[in-house]
Amino acid sequence: MKSFPVKEVLLGAAAAVLAYLGISGVNVLPVVFLAGLAWLMYQSASLRSPSATAVRSPRTVAVPEVRFEDIGGQAAAKKELLEAIQFIADRERIAHMGIRPLKGILLTGPPGTGKTLLAKAAAHHTDSVFLAAAGSEFVEMYAGVGAQRVRELFRRARETARKERKRSAIIFIDEMEVLGARRGSHSTHMEYDQTLNQLLTEMDGIAVDEDVQVLVMGATNRVDMMDPALLRPGRFDRTVNVDLPDREARLAILRLHTRKKPLGADVDLEAIARQTFGFSGAHLESLANEAAILALREGLTEVRQRHLVEAVDKVMLGEKLDRRPTPAEKRRVAVHEAGHALVGEWVDPGSVATVTITPRGRAMGYVRTSPADDKYLYTRSQLEARIQVALAGFLAEELVFGEASTGASNDFEQAVGMARHILHAGLSPLGIVDAENLNRGLEGAVVQQIIADQRELVAWFLAERRPVLEQVADTLVDVEVIDGEEIRRLLADAPPLPPVQGPVLPESA
Ligand code: ADP
Fold this sequence. Notes:
Largest sheet: 6 strands, mixed
Bound molecules: adenosine-5'-diphosphate
Number of domains: 4
Number of strands: 9
Number of helices: 18
Strand order of the largest sheet: 1-3-4-5-2-6
Helix content: 40-55%
Structural class: alpha/beta
Strand content: 5-15%
Radius of gyration: 32 Å
């Protein structure tokens, strides 16, 4: 049913009145001009208004259901956050002591580490309403729109809290670096700066005696890009680091995300936690989900360890590729990966978990290692060992086929990167260097020397272990995947290595 056309009737009536006045000899031109102008302004306002009122309806949840217990690991972040939000819980005492309220907390860390979860848990813990928006939603072509959205967001927060009869509201802004980038860093227009200024104004306006206490929680991975004014006391007072989970934390997250999944008796989540160094919480959630899908596809009613193991690879490297390599390519990849695996075992016994030549994502094959512990610090010999592992694929191909292929360029990048790391960390024969002002030629020469030395050592080792290398490669061609245990068994059966014939490393260059 069409509603009564009030607008049209009014316009018609106005036109009739004007026509009558015109006929009666009244000068109606100024009126017509003003009406036209008013109409134009109305049109442009209505064009803008849909976006102007948005942070496209901030995603409001009355009070989120997420609890701190639902977040695995992040013990330090949780503790800091809990302390910080005590300010909201204890408002009367804070006001009594004359302490200014905590207005902003910045959560920094890589994507998928649980920053949104932490903000939601903070809202749950403090019984606050929760509004989420992303920095990019504030950025528009039109001047003033971003600033208006910021105002609107704060207004909505207070209004929603009142409506829900809550005394506090948490505003969560993801991608904070978009909204909070250093002022003047956007050369094209001043819009960003206006938006940021509005945020600062709103934050400055937060007072302890308001009926609704507002807390802003920003999330970013680029705290270095943020405008210093945002990090000053009274704005984002606290910065909480939300890092990638370590092994224990990964285990905790895996436990959380497999809580509601039927797990087989053979499932060993600790082993999965060991193999997932560098995974974020979001990766682990996806891993648990993928494993359950794999089990379901097989028609099983419980998730087995092999599903989890396959899910690790899947999350790491994307879906299995349909493209199959030719038999010649397959053998080359097998030799290449066998090289990585044998040298991997040589420099760090027990570290190889599995080797496979099943292509996934962009990798044609890969060796997965499970180091005993997460590593953050490396000595020179440890870095050299990693260079050796990186070079091993190329050198194994060279040994077996007489020449290597293009499959190793990524390995070289790694090897060069690590050699440079040795140099810049002051661990090369040059000693401590100023990386910024280092002579390029000299840098290149030292990097090359480091790599050449490792190359010689690895070539010697592979030649000595050629029978095992070929054996592992043959098995790979056959069954496409080989376990670390199997490789260790083959190596243990091999005759002992003669004394190293590699280079005597020079003490000084
Ligand atoms: P961020 O905001 O840091 O990008 P999120 O909080 O949005 O990350 O996390 C995305 C998803 O990843 C969550 O919904 C959850 O399933 C999972 N996740 C991330 N970190 C954790 C964690 N520490 N514990 C449990 N699940 C997590």
